[in-house]
Write a structure and sequence with these properties.
9 strands, single chain, alpha+beta, flat, 4-stranded mixed sheet, 5-stranded antiparallel sheet
């Protein structure tokens, strides 16, 4: 675990500090490795990837990990992380909705159905443009709200809670 922690520190270089809160970042490299080991060990225990239980009693040899069970969490989000409005300077988007208000939908990708997929949207704090996975909402020069659907959208929205990803789109 120490070797893995040290390798992660080496790979991340200056970004390594992101793994710690400001108050918990250790000064010495040895303490940094130890602190990261502790975080990784707790995470492995949470995922049941250790051969010991919470009392450090040996449970038995770990079974092989199936790559089918290690998958990303599908999320529907805008294609851009920054504001692209020509009247605004490029800046990072903030999440447009509160965590409790994020809709969960059904997504079909590569003939696989995913339930409860979150649909995220981003908003620019300066020009109030809102970015979605398939359209943008913005104010024009007269202050009127407009909606622009994207030809390059990777997701097709069908109804209120059903999305298809580009691989499953029907082509004519």
């Amino acid at each position: 675990m120490r070797a893995l922690s040290h390798a992660m520190m080496h790979q991340l270089k200056d970004d390594f500090a992101m793994l710690f809160h400001d108050r918990e970042f250790p000064d010495e490299e040895n303490q940094q490795v130890t602190k990261l080991c502790s975080k990784l060990d707790n995470f492995a225990s949470l995922l049941h990837l250790t051969p010991c239980n919470h009392r450090n009693k040996f449970k038995g040899k770990l079974l092989p990990v199936s790559y089918d069970t290690i998958q990303g969490i599908p999320t529907i989000c805008p294609d851009t992380p920054i504001c692209l409005n020509t009247n605004c300077e490029p800046r990072g988007l903030l999440q447009a909705s509160r965590l409790r208000d994020i809709p969960l939908v059904t997504l079909i990708k590569d003939n696989t159905v995913y339930q409860d997929v979150p649909v995220l949207s981003g908003r620019c704090t300066i020009c109030d443009t809102t970015y979605y996975s398939n359209h943008e909402r913005f104010k024009d020069n007269y202050g009127i709200w407009n909606k622009c659907y994207l030809n390059s959208a990777r997701f097709l929205k069908v109804g209120q809670s059903f999305y298809l990803i580009e691989n499953c789109l029907i082509q004519f």
